[in-house]
Amino acid sequence: MRVRRGVTLIELIVVAAIIALLATISLSGVAQARRMARTGACQAALRGLGTALAAYATTHADAVVPSYNMTGTAVGTHNPLDGWAVILDREAFAGGAPGPTGNAFYCPDTLPRAGLAAAQTGTDPDNPRGFMDWPAVLTLSQAYARPLPERGMPRVLRVSYWINGENPIGRPLPVRQGVYYTGSVGYGPDPLGRTLRANRLTEVARPAATIALADGLYAGNQDAPRRGARDLRIGYRHVRGTAAANVAFADGHVGMIRGDAFPRDFGGTASAQQVREENVGGRPTCYADPDKWLAAGP
What we know:
By secondary structure, the chain is α+β, with helices and mostly antiparallel strands. It has one domain (10-296). Helices cover 24% and strands 16% of the residues. It contains 4 helices and 12 strands. It has helices at 9-59, 84-90, 272-278, 290-296; strands spanning 68-72, 132-134, 136-138, 143-145, 157-159, 161-163, 165-166, 182-187, 211-215, 238-240, 242-249, 254-258. The strands form 4 sheets. Strands 6, 9, 10, 11 and 12 form a 5-stranded antiparallel beta sheet that branches. A 3-stranded parallel beta sheet has the order 1-8-7, with no helix packed on it. Strands 2-5 form a two-stranded antiparallel ribbon.
């Protein structure tokens, strides 16, 4: 006579543990797949923006799109800034939107926060991973959106990409033409009477290495682009072993830079030797012509 043996409590616990482990692995795999999909979507958006930047230059006699247009050296309610994204949107090189949906200027891993609401990102590492609305008015204590219908910009666009630009706003500073990929066209005059003009794409000496766009906010702050820096502008939204940012280069190709490896400029905590080492040898660089500007020094 065959004796039927029931399932013991220990066996039930083991089976439940196995099921829980498999469920955890499955959910982890789904979450990872979703992260990878968002990273891929961000890279696709940056490729499209790289194409838009090239098309803008072709249409404008080789001029690089301004980080924004301005008059004088200070900003405020009297001097609102348009921004590179709304310029591309106005001229139909790329399509923006007031929110994330259908918006070429929005990374899908953007955090839902206004990263520059207080005019700086401060020390909160989540702020650079947020967004900024353009056109904008900047003051010492806040940044707020404002449409510019008089410039053909009747709506506000949500933007979560940083552009590599020379933006010495706030007071009369020496004009350095062509240091980075772009700049604030119209800034000036400086003490020598010079005004920033649009950069030329053909003046970018190493387009495959020069950073044009990256995950992040606003523009500038090339001296403090590393993760953890105060008033950081780069938004490290993705993962490559550690936090990383998607980047579009001046030649249109897309890559990823880790938060501990983004190239720095003179003026921050890096030594002059570190700045030179980080921007040469075919590495990603914030300079349009590294040899020229690294030789010039701080």
